[in-house]
Amino acid sequence: MKTPLFNIQQLRRFSSFRGLNQEIKISPLAKIRNIGIIAHIDAGKTTTTERMLYYGGLTRSIGNVDDGDTVTDYLSAERERGITIQSASVTLPWNGRSINLIDTPGHADFTFEVIRSLRVLDGVVTILDSVAGVEAQTEKVWKQASDLGIPKLAFLNKMDRDGAGFGRTVKEIVARLGTRVVLVNVPHFKHDSASQGSKFDGVIDVFEKKLLQWEEGDGTDLKVTDISDHSTTPELYEECERCLEAAVETLGEFDEEVVSAFLETEDYMKVPPSVLKAALKRATLESYAVPVLCGSSFKNIGVQPLLDAVVDYLPSPLEMKLPEVTTDFKSIARSKKKQPKKDEVNDNHLAVTIDPVSGLNINNNKNLTTALAFKVLTDPMRGIMVFVRVYSGQLQPNSTLLNTTTGERIKIKKLLLMHADTPREVSKLESGSIGVITGVNSIRTGDTLVSHATKKDVNGLQPRETMVKLHPINIPPPVFSVSLEPVTHGDRRNMETALETVLREDPSLHLSEDDESGQTILSGMGELHLEITKDRLLKDMKVNVDVGDVKVTFKETILRPTNYFTKTVPCEKGGEFKITLSLDSFEGDIKETSFAEEPSFIALNMDNNAILLEESSESEKIRESLKGLEGGEKGWPFAIAYETMIRALVSGVTASLQVGGPIARLPVHSTIVRIKEWEVPLAADNVSPLLTLARQAVLEALASLDPKDTTLMEPQMKVSVYVNDEDLGVVIQDLMGTRKANISGIEETGDEAAGDELRWAKQEAERTYVPQDPTMMYIKSGQAAGKKAVRFNSPLKEMIGYLPKLRSLTKGRGVYDMEFAGMYRIPGDRLQDVLRHDL
């Protein structure tokens, strides 16, 4: 039975989905969704986002990537290239909910944009190209979200394309991403008389037992057919029943309510949709299963049900995974206690609870406002705009905040909600909100901001609360570099101003200077990353600068410990500033070494370096002053001063390590700075002399090293190459020779070689029901018999331009994926070659 088009008053779920042009208001927490769009490049993230904005009533026309008129891709470089470069935030209404949505890039060079966005999201929509299936970047962003415990749903896009395979892609999701799935809707095809084939025109809503068919146009004309009667629509009824059976079986293993509902009638078609939806939401929040939907965003099919799924299955801020909240107060008090055992409570962690009305509550203080700065942009009209996620309390305009990362008090001005590059001023940002702070230029990505919710100041907060840290945003190391040189001396100031802007906005870029040539060295995540930055400097910012060729980024490291070096300077008010330190070496991730277990360990924010304050390194006067700091307000001013001293040490050490080592004056990597003794006179007005002494002492220690006691480090990549048996020999010959690969294994890709987790995923994929799909015969053969997976590490330098070579060796059949493995010491037999040809 076909029904006429419903309007919103009759049946909102199957309405034309337009007319929801309500004003975005501050919503109750239960009605907020903070979500992100993640995917491989060209899967259709931005196209899908544009439809969401249109159907949510925020735009009057649909933007298209090919036409260069998209809302979220508003940078000139994004519109010229048709790719997303930086994440964009929008807030849109949907069926009485407020969806804060972040559209993220898909290209691997801009992975930091994904990393910092994921840090503030409660759920994600993973978009897949149903022709290409699960691709390399899909796996990467999926893992990033999984590592953070973020619930996910999957949208199989481009179902209108030739070669699109819903069933094939679903099975790849299960097998390659290692998750159970529940089919929320499945594709429907109608006969196309023109092509004598079939045409994708809609979806079967499995839970509601409805066929949704979109007319050609902007996606607002929708036909709804009830398929709950077998006699009327037998084929659709049977397909829906099979999907419901699979859903009941999967959810029944997780939720007893589903089993009870089924046993009442023993009819899959009579299990109430409300029971299935509630169970699927619980399963999604606990990462037991992933809801799967499909559509064609470009053809305006299936996006509205995706918005419904965001509301139905992804968490509100009241259902989010509780963040880890720590305080530096205990470590600053420095009682020299040993690290807590695993079964002991770490008193550096603050209590985090959820209040059903006010949301997140930290340290049992409803007035503690905490926010995480996750992005900084510079707008030509509005100046610097800081994007924040408010976790607890509320932010108000014209408040004073404390930046717990720097210790600085900051006066903010207006608060905004963003519609891509168009802001709207709001009176407050409450817990769970994502918005923008204006009027400040000293906040950086990853900074934690605190304030008193009602006093609009820091006054009234406990000492522990003034040193709160929300979960950090890890910045991946840059691996490519270019040299920058102003054309004339007068252009240098413009270059430096522009670089200050791009580095503030993108912390994954890094700046250094070549002492010999005087050139400025800009480092980034990849060749495209640096090319985009170059275009921005030259075209958008009109900087007159010569840009060199892209090169791999190298670092220096030390091979042996240095002696201790002492630097002192008198204080005008009596006493002296003093520091004694040495440098030590190690290999691997500093956070996984024994150094990280020391209570006085301080990891630096770049180049895998750290500071270790040795036992009783502070002077006796400082230790006496620190006694009783844990008692509350007493000693608080000194605690703040002490934190300032530590920051001075960190700044001085960091700056000197960036000056470079004795071989090539490259930044020093993987080095521990042991501070044996340090002193600040209690009468001192400031601690800047301590910063200077720390810098001088480290530079003196580096200068004491013989070049043979240092070496270079280079970025290595972890690579997997998938080839047919007959191509294995020539591929390995090329890897061992040209690529200088360190092969760790050659594996069969069949089930017999799979580990337990992979074997489970393959078995789950085999038993997962999917509708008939003619492309199943083309399911990606990277896991099939007759294929080999070659696992190896290789210097990044040798992997540049590898894809054309691999295709040549394998007649186009070979594929590979690659990720950063770390910085490794260059073997002695290659060191001189690198020094001669690459620096």
Please characterize this protein's 3D structure.
There is one protein chain. The chain has 839 residues and is α+β, with helices and mostly antiparallel strands. The protein has five domains: 2-24 and 31-313, 3-Layer(aba) Sandwich (Rossmann fold); 326-469, Translation factors (Elongation Factor Tu (Ef-tu), domain 3, Beta Barrel), CATH 2.40.30; 480-552, Elongation Factor G (Translational Gtpase), domain 3 (Alpha-Beta Plaits); 558-705, Ribosomal Protein S5, domain 2 (2-Layer Sandwich), CATH 3.30.230; 713-773 and 781-837, 2-Layer Sandwich (Alpha-Beta Plaits). An eight-stranded antiparallel sheet has the order 20-19-25-16-17-24-21-22. The protein has a seven-stranded mixed sheet with strand order 3-4-2-5-6-12-7, with helices on both faces. The protein has a five-stranded antiparallel sheet with strand order 1-11-10-9-8, with no helix packed on it. β28 (510-513) and β29 form a beta hairpin. α6 (234-252) packs across α7 and α14 packs parallel to α15 (688-703). GTP binds at residues 39-46, 103-107, 157-160.
Ordered list of secondary-structure elements with their pairings:
Elements: E1 2-3, E2 32-39, H1 45-55, H2 76-81, E3 88-94, E4 97-103, H3 111-118, E5 123-129, H4 136-147, E6 152-157, H5 166-177, E7 180-183, E8 185-192, E9 197-205, E10 210-214, E11 222-226, H6 234-252, H7 256-265, H8 273-285, E12 289-294, H9 303-313, E13 326-327, H10 329-333, E14 352-355, E15 359-362, E16 368-379, E17 383-392, E18 394-395, E19 400-403, E20 408-411, E21 415-419, E22 422-426, E23 429-430, E24 434-438, E25 448-452, E26 468-469, E27 480-486, H11 491-505, E28 510-513, E29 520-524, H12 527-540, E30 545-547, E31 551-552, E32 555-558, E33 565-570, E34 576-585, E35 601-603, E36 610-613, H13 620-626, H14 636-659, E37 671-679, H15 688-703, E38 710-724, H16 728-737, E39 742-748, H17 756-767, E40 787-795, H18 796-799, H19 802-809, E41 815-825, H20 828-837
Parallel strand pairs: 2-4, 2-5, 5-6, 6-12, 7-12, 36-37
Antiparallel strand pairs: 1-11, 3-4, 8-9, 9-10, 10-11, 13-26, 14-15, 16-17, 16-25, 17-24, 18-23, 19-20, 19-25, 21-22, 21-24, 27-29, 27-30, 27-31, 28-29, 32-38, 33-34, 34-37, 35-36, 38-40, 38-41, 39-40
